[in-house]
Specification:
homohexamer; 131 residues; 0% strand
């Protein structure tokens, strides 16, 4: 296990232990185990672990970019489902998705809100307990 | 002048007085004056003015979403050129654009860095003085 | 209720009373009530209500742009499901979606046709009765 | 010369004789002559020539889809530069581009307006005489 | 039946007889029969039939472009489900989808792997027997 | 210098010594030196260096995905400018870009051909000598 992987998995688990484990390791690790490892190493070990931005900022960026893409609903859900772990409240998640309408149009913002609807209507769901 | 416009122009000027004025009002206001007004009213008067997110968070979201889109270089420059006004440092802008590679691929991140190259290499350029 | 909202809801109801009410108000209004209001105010109250384009033209534009995006299947369905209300026939909807292949590629056009398949095979479904 | 090409070139010339000839034939025909022919045959000979939509509707769709894509500025210009030939006025072109903000966000709409700025500020430029 | 259609259907059937027949002809042919014919004529009759690239190269390009788009999961599946017919192994499909992360980001690559998960975990599924 | 970097730079130099060096190292390395290193390490050291696909296949995929994105003209040029080094001829590059029209529409394919026009009209330009 590389140092990059170890650093990455620490952050990934802090963010969304079961979710990420499930997401990355189940389906993907079965057909592309090297890729599952690379995602942890590069996304979390190389990028997220850099000190220049705190975790709350990293997650604002992740949620904004994933929502704006319009094609990453399941990844958006992983980050929204653990938003509170980096200090982002439910009200703030809703504001991020509303602001996305400015840059990516109303359908993309409405779809992002719909993708996360269950997470945003259950008071216990942004702490990593649902998703 | 509507209350929405007044609130919007206050934020727009706080962010990037001359830049935004220039960007929105010159070319666009000439051919689509109602649209220039709507951008101020809706983007800044309705969305940015909401209290649930502070200005630094709004700008992290704006820079992330604009960079990830891959087609909004000039809007990205407006926000990067005034990043310091909302408390985002040059080092943080670079981190945001690097993180975008995760969600939108390397070419999009490299192009965003290239779009903002002059702003990011001049120490005085994130305070609204260049752009 | 603002004048903008009143104008917007009139057009939205004319287009797709139940559909739009359902789409915008149920899920979205629950988590983001201000945003549901803004969509009505801005999209229909500010833009659609402008006289410079008739409703048929507005709907041709909506269907074309939504289909071309490739990520707005549910919004596309709302507009297709009420196409006849703005004078667009089933044959014309099919032609719009075929033409989209030129600008957005064959998969996007094929997916748009598939997204609307049930609406386009039931003779009663473009008058707002299905969807 | 195929019947499809003959039908296609008739429509292409009706729309934008010199522009399209220039656009498709100069650079593209030099490196990919078969492709230049296919564009005329398929886009104009097969699709545009179908009677189920009139030319004004076809051009509303083209301008909407090209503007919404955010990456087709030069093709957008070709269609805007001959908008009047299919009965679309300058005021209507501006309305189309404003409406695009709903589906593709403000930066995309603003960029489309900027891409066509010179065409939209010269009273003689939507009849195929500029561009 | 045009010569272009005959050439196209030959290649389409060689690639994915039942799949393509099902995909293109069932739903689409019902609402847009001319379009189903055009897809065969243009995509396979005009483009795929050209000798300058062998079928393996054509399919590498198709899988790469469809995966990178992020919105063509069902078309991606059609091509992956018959990958072995053009000499592309399961291991190679996985490598293509991993490489797509470089150009279109991790979520797009992960979604492509998930879209094809069942095809990539059943040893008999890239020969056209599943999908 | 990590082993990943060493492997990556070997492939990057084999492909496009001066071009890539210039592209990645000049502008980007100045503002984001860690990111320039990561691109080499991850894109070329981790992905391209894997044996499961030969270099010709890797480059077919790169050119297809970059062209299809519609926003990566400069990266597309880097790969096209060294196409012959991985055994892809000028005629084959043109075929790839034509085929992209199927998946990403005609404007995207036409823009890719225009982006590479000078490289495709000079007989010496696909060997890494221009660009």
């Amino acid at each position: 296990m590389s140092e990059r992987y170890r650093k990455g998995i620490d952050i990934a688990e802090l963010l969304a232990a079961d979710k990420l484990a499930h997401f990355v390791e189940s389906g993907i690790a079965e057909v592309a185990p090297d890729f599952a490892r690379m995602v942890i190493e590069f996304a979390f070990g190389d990028i997220y672990s850099r000190k220049a931005l705190d975790l709350r900022s990293r997650e604002l960026i992740a949620i904004a970019a994933l929502a704006a893409s319009g094609t990453a609903g399941s990844q958006l859900r992983v980050h929204v489902a653990s938003a509170e772990k980096s200090g982002i409240s439910k009200e703030e998640v809703v504001e991020i998705l509303m602001q996305i309408a400015l840059y990516a149009g109303f359908p993309t913002a409405l779809n992002a809100l719909a993708d996360c609807h269950d997470l945003l209507t259950d008071d216990n769901c942004l702490s990593g307990a649902c998703g």
